[in-house]
TrEMBL record:
<dbReference type="Pfam" id="PF01344">
    <property type="entry name" value="Kelch_1"/>
</dbReference>
<protein>
    <submittedName>
        <fullName>Uncharacterized protein</fullName>
    </submittedName>
</protein>
<feature type="signal peptide">
    <location>
        <begin position="1"/>
        <end position="21"/>
    </location>
</feature>
<keyword id="KW-0732">Signal</keyword>
<dbReference type="InterPro" id="IPR006652">
    <property type="entry name" value="Kelch_1"/>
</dbReference>
<keyword id="KW-0677">Repeat</keyword>
<dbReference type="InterPro" id="IPR037293">
    <property type="entry name" value="Gal_Oxidase_central_sf"/>
</dbReference>
<dbReference type="InterPro" id="IPR011043">
    <property type="entry name" value="Gal_Oxase/kelch_b-propeller"/>
</dbReference>
<keyword id="KW-0880">Kelch repeat</keyword>
Amino acid sequence: MNKTVRLSVLLAGLGSMVAGCGESVDATVQSASSSLSTRAEAALAPQWTSNAPKNVRSTSHASALLSSGLVLTAVGGGAELYNPYSDTWSATGPMNEPRGLPSATRLDSGQVLVAGGQNSVGPDIRTAELYDPATGTWTYTGSMQVGRSWHTATLLDSGKVLVTGGLTRSMGFTPTAELYDPATGMWSSAGTLSSGGFFQAAAKLYSGEVLLTGSISGVNAEVYNPTTNSWRQVALMPRPRAFHTATRLYSGKVLVAGGNTNEGTTPSAYLYDPFLDLWTPAASMNQARRDHTATLLYSGKVLVAGRSAEEGAELYDPETNTWTLLGDALVPPSATATLLHTGQVLLVGETTSRFTP
């Protein structure tokens, strides 16, 4: 039941209780209804809360929602679990090796695949590890063919994981892509991208294909087909960018927002229609952003947070094509965002906060 319906039912109930009591109570009813409406709207308004602090403060971690509803955060050589029901953090088993800026993907088995990253040796760790929530332990699995950090990782309908692009020590931003098969624990080539993996963003389409966007110049949009294990170029985004976000909406369209263009950080946004292979301008954000988070809420709206001058947040409404700034936002710098089972969004950086729609 949405907020409008809940409020209407609440006020209708109040009116029924006083029906037939005569005109003498009209003023009282109106006053009470107005007061109740104000309090109810305030209670239903989006809210930000500070959460229990992590044991390890970091801005180069990776997070994944577990089947239990807990959130796994992996950074350095350690890992922590956040319990949204008790608002507490607890240590869990440490990774086998330290890594910053890896990817973290929950598999169909419930295990979490953490792949790649960087450490003091360089930005091209090839190894990958599996976290088992049942035992709180990590085990090595197959190593990637190309070590990378700052890459994308997408869970496919088959249960395999597609990893694309990213930063390497030897090649800079690599145009390679590969697949992880949980059944064998092995990686295989997933073809070559048309452009280097320069701070790209990936979104899985309803077709099961993956849209990959991002490049300051040249090819900036292409689609991976898991059936043929191949890439094809699609319509070019009118304004190339990197450090942006790509979010599949309930309509099937993909919202690409913010990022860096040749002209600097931008508030602009576009919608990609995979059925028509067409880009159309969306309303621009209120603030220019790069390297931010974007989370699709259960309502269909998109929460975008962080990496603006104010480290603020705003909501995109696909039905009205409008952005709304959210006041008093508590957005940690360099945060990751995780949609909880409760519908709230957990933001984790050096500090932690939670957004309630």
